[in-house]
Amino acid sequence: MEKSRMNLPKGPDTLCFDKDEFMKEDFDVDHFVSDCRKRVQLEELRDDLELYYKLLKTAMVELINKDYADFVNLSTNLVGMDKALNQLSVPLGQLREEVLSLRSSVSEEIRAIDERMSKQEDIRKKKMCVLRLIQVIRSVEKIEKILNSQSSKETPALEARSPLLTGQILERIATEFNQLQFHAVQSKGMPLLDKVRPRIAGITAMLQRSLEGLLLEGLQTSDVDIIRHCLRTYATIDKTRDAEALVGQVLVKPYVDQVVVEQVVESHSDGLQTMYNKLLEFVPHHCRLLREVTDGAISSEKGNTVPGYDFLVNSVWPEMVRGLEENLPSLFNPGDPDAFHEKYTISMDFLRTFERQCGSQASVKRLRAHPAYHSFNNKWNLPIYFQIRFREIAGSLEAALTDVLEEAPAGSSYCLLASHRTWSSLQRCWADAMFLPALAHRLWMLTLQILARYSVFVNELLLRPISNENAKDTKNPLVTGTKDPSVTQGNSEDQGGGPSETKPVASVSSTQLVYVVADLDRLREQLPELLETIKSKLEMIGFENFSSVSAALEDAQLSLSACVPPLSTRIVQDLSDCCFSSLKSALEVPRLYRRTNKEVPTTASSYMDSALKPLYQLQREHKDKLKHATVQQWLEGALSESTQKYYGTVSDVLHSVRKMEESLKRLKQARKTTPANPGGSGGGMSDDDKIRLQLAMDVEYLGEQIQKMGLQTKDIKSFPALAELVAAAKDQAAAEQP
């Protein structure tokens, strides 16, 4: 506080620090110095501190000079102060003794008053207990007097007394009984109350019997006033649950036991629906008066209702659930999933219809919170039903995802059975015959699992070797995949070298890979349709976060899309290998023309048609299954790879021809003979020129076929260079002609 009130003298504005820093409670010299060093050098800091130190000394001297007289007179003013203090000590001591004496007297009086107040409080409590006991005795005697007066009048007039009058009397008794119960609870533990308790129990039993009889009489005679008085009496004595239990036992239970009969339900195809319809008819037919009195569903003459009752929730529904659980146990059996789905769907419709009969949202909330409601829902073993369905779907799918790829059934939009089964499994998850709203989350997870399993299956296909059927017949490179496992086993046995018990490695054909790509495209196109179906189902359960569902399905779609590039690469590689296996026949061209006197070539070689046949077969047989862009992309890739290899082959052939031609020239020059026609016969085209011309025709034919396929030769890698290579060879052959 002193520091906060102390004002330091103001220094020059050129100081590198703030004077208030010295007055802070957490002032630290090291921190102060390090902070100032960030702004100035230590020499400047030292000069500023010395300057401010001089200011502080000057200010202190001025302060002392200002109050110098007070400092000097301080000791003079205190002379005689000790004598004055000694004179005050005696009267202060006497005052202290008087205060202590007075305090002791007051404390004794307070204790005496507290004792008297405590005694009065005890008397008051005992008086209240006595009054309550007196009231209990009076209430018991009053009720017994009313009962005795009614029982003693065994006259025809009593027999003719109307039920309404009896109801009014019971209502009076109930009011008095309610007061009796209140005072009896307040007087709990009193000996006199224990003596009166048997009489109270007798009154309670009599009142209970009378109310039950009166309520049944009112229900049988459909007397609204009797029912109203009776229910009001039950409410007065806080026995509303007893009235609801009585209605359930006497009115609802016999009806339910009569309607819910297992033999009758199972003997008809629509027996369950008929049974539920009859149960729903109970409320409008048999609970009309109760709802009129308690809910005001039907306006009565007086228009007053008795609150605190909900017979549909506490009387009707528990008895219906009990009847279904006891009389129809097969209803909840999940062994037959189709029958279970039908029963569950019909039962949930019944439950929703019953909720609509409740008449108010508050009643529906009470129904859904009732133990019988939870018991009814828990009886349906939905996890077991889902497990059965899961085994059906997963088993059917796994049976199709085998090493042997089978074709899809006729009429399917897919090529392979595995793809067809995948899509049918996805559809089945959300079909009306299988879907249940309570299992939506499990079915959604199963949907993602099916898509992930199919993606894994396609990735496994990429690891399989391509079958060597194409090597057997190069003219038919895209044959249908083998469906017989013996073929795969035979191929493995032909290789030899392995033990007989070793499991053969499954292979896949190029055609099957093409089918997989076509099915992937088809499946990705149909996923939006599946998404719309899923959304419509999820709306039934109030789900609104469709963005997460769409994102998850998009991730699955991307996973499927990621399988297409490696599949395309393998297909292109197989097509390229198949084409080049024929194109490498260009190495045989020199053998066909050298020293054979063969005519000058006029058409392309036959190996060109063999090389191009797989590509035309791809275009022709799969144009309806694949996208046009995909086919063109594959053709372009296969032609690019095979042409690049073909370029090397043709280059080698032309190089060898040129070397052979040069060797013959050097040989003849060495013999000093005139080379009339190297490698040829007669005065026509030489054999080397025929070879060059044949290769040029082959390449020109290849370019024409590429354009017929709808491609551009400039887009085929190495083809422009190949065309230039053979064009130069052709020009050389033309230049050597006489």
Task: Give structural notes.
- By secondary structure, the protein is mainly alpha-helical.
- Helices cover 72% and strands 0% of the residues.
- It is built from 30 helices and no strands.
- It has helices at 2-5, 29-37, 42-66, 68-73, 81-152, 156-159, 163-186, 191-221, 224-236, 240-259, 262-266, 271-286, 288-294, 311-327, 337-357, 361-369, 371-378, 382-400, 417-429, 440-463, 469-472, 485-495, 510-538, 546-561, 564-583, 589-593, 606-622, 628-670, 687-708, 719-735.
- Helix 20 (440-463) runs antiparallel to helix 23.
- The protein starts with a helix and ends with a helix.
Keywords, separated by commas or semicolons:
mainly alpha, 30 helices, 738 residues, single chain
Write the layout of secondary structure elements.
Blueprint (H helix, E strand, L loop, with lengths): L1 H4 L23 H9 L4 H25 L1 H6 L7 H72 L3 H4 L3 H24 L4 H31 L2 H13 L3 H20 L2 H5 L4 H16 L1 H7 L16 H17 L9 H21 L3 H9 L1 H8 L3 H19 L16 H13 L10 H24 L5 H4 L12 H11 L14 H29 L7 H16 L2 H20 L5 H5 L12 H17 L5 H43 L16 H22 L10 H17 L3
Summary, kept brief:
About 70% of the residues lie in helices and about 0% in strands. The chain is mainly alpha-helical and about 750 residues long. The chain is flat, with a radius of gyration of 54 Å.
Distance between the termini: 124 Å
Task: Determine Rg (CA atoms, Å).
Answer: 54 Å
Order of helices and strands: HHHHHHHHHHHHHHHHHHHHHHHHHHHHHH
- For the report, how would you describe the main beta sheet? none
Mean pLDDT: 80
List the total number of helices. Answer: 30
Overall structural class, as computed from helix and strand content, comes to mainly alpha
Helix content: over 70%
Low-confidence segments: 152-165, 297-302, 470-502, 674-682
Tally the beta strands.
0
Q: Given the C-alpha coordinates, what overall shape results?
A: flat
The percent range for strand residues is under 5%
